Amino acid sequence: GLKGGSFRLQTLHSDSMAKEKHPFRLYHEYVGKRLKKRWKPKPGMGGVHVEFKIGRDGNIHDLRIKDSCKDPEYDQAALDAVAASAPFKPIPPELTIDEFPVSYMF
Questions:
Q1: Torsion sign, CA atoms 103, 41, 25, 99
Q2: Which tens digit of pLDDT belongs to each residue from 36-80?
Q3: Angle (CA) 1 20 78, round 5°
Q4: Burial 23-50 (b: 16+ CB within 10 A, else e)
Q5: C-alpha 51: how far from its chain's center?
Q6: What distance, in Å, lies between the first and last C-alpha atoms of the chain?
Q7: Three-state secondary structure call for residue 91
């Protein structure tokens, strides 16, 4: 939609992650805010679902459109918003993951 997007964690939810201060949750929120800030949609554009991974160093890889909105201009705008958001800050050291998976609906 025009006001931003939504995104979900691509991982199993655990009770410890539900805690507001959990590093995974905080990084997840940071990524969502950064994507929303870079998103400049045009009126009337439909939704597109993108997926990508953030490496430990904050660089993105495996960026792809999971579900196209069937409008090439809008699809490209979503990819451009992700690219403009990169690099992200590095994955926090307390998270013992090599990559942070992101699934985001523009």
A1: positive
A2: 999 877 776 668 999 999 999 999 999 999 999 988 988 999 999
A3: 25
A4: ebeebbeebbebbbeebebeeebeebbb
A5: 7
A6: 6
A7: coil
